[in-house]
Amino acid sequence: MTTPVADTDDKTSVSATTGEPVRRFSGAWAGALALRYSMVIVMLLVIGYFSYRSARFGTVDNLQTILVAAAPFALIALGQTLVILTGGIDLSVGSVIAVSAMASAAVAKANPGQIWMTVLVAMAVGLVAGSINGYLVSRINVPPFIATLGMLTAGSGFAYVIGGGAPINGLPAEFGQIANTKVFGLQIPVLVMIIGIIVLAVVMKRTAYGMRVYAVGGNRTAAEIAGINAKNVLFSVYALSGVLAGLSGVMLASRVISGPPNLGQGYELDAIAAVVIGGASLMGGRGTIWGTALGLFMIQTLNNGLDLLVVPAYWQDVIKGVLIVAAVSVDVWSSKRRI
After folding, report:
1. d(Cα 161, Cα 318) in Å, to the nearest integer?
2. Which domain holds residue 233?
3. Is residue 28, in this structure, part of any structural domain at all?
4. Which of 161, 186, 314, 336 qualifies as a FRET site for 329, CA 20 to 30 Å off?
5. Which residues are in coiled coils (predicted)?
């Protein structure tokens, strides 16, 4: 297959593989365009299918439901995107959510008049966990899989330690304001998600820091020769991932006005799935924040639509698994075609 990459006139483009002109609106041009926007096409088909099958799916209330459900996942998916762009992976975000939620719940219960302090505590806990991951990966050269797997186990244990092996209940009602307060008609987590996506998209596209992240993930040796401090970049992405997971944890705890020690269990898998479905390469150096956002909303739309159609949870997992494999397969195949 040929991929059009540059215009030669108003009706043709040039193939990236052969250098020969490819006529617009030809079969090759249409195929390349469909491949490039395959996930967008799939997303539109999914929305169309669920809208046809369920009258509730296309309502404003249901859209808000999808956004609220997506918000906590969006934060950890954004952090995971930064890590994966460097060629790493963060398996600890689920446990960081749990320990941050438990810490914030404990603070809220002890200081009922200082509700917003709980947000800072949760983010600080996430920062500590992420910094430990970053130090192990960047300074001691522990493989990311091993370092974050260790934090996954340790964080889960600490979550139970904070609560004495039980959930933290009896929190002040004001604690729920963090997740349930509306601004401009949108709940705070949804606003945080929107702001986070926009800010990180700009940072990764328009700043020197974003360039360094892509460079380290693409070829760390070449990046270091070019003068980039790869260790600092690696440390920063894991620290940011931890902060975002901590913020996600306090929002999830606020939603249920409780501190469950098993909160966030398995969330790291959905975060990784969103990044992969969005087109990021697990080898690093390729992917976008907008792609992750698309992958995230694909997963949440599927979850919501399948729930409306009363599809059993185990079949939902099968469908999501097939989608992940298909997305990676398309990415690998298209990459080979570009070589």
Report:
1. 34
2. 71-265
3. no
4. 314
5. none
Rounded distance, CA 200 to CA 77, Å? 12
Tell me the pTM.
Answer: 0.85
Report the alpha-carbon distance of residue 325 to residue 333 in Å, rounded: 12
Is residue 128 in a domain?
yes
61 occurs within a structural domain: no
* Per-residue model confidence as pLDDT tens digits over 271-285: 988 898 888 888 888
Give the CA diameter of the chain: 70
Specify the number of domains making up the chain: 1
Distance CA 176, CA 166 (A): 20
Beta pairing class for 186-187 and 182-183: antiparallel
Average pLDDT over residues 42-65: 86
CA dist list (Å): 143 to 39, 95, 135 = 31, 19, 11
Task: Identify any residues that bridge with 323 across adjacent strands, giving them in sequence order.
Answer: none
* Position 302 in a domain: no
Beta bridge partners of 23: 12
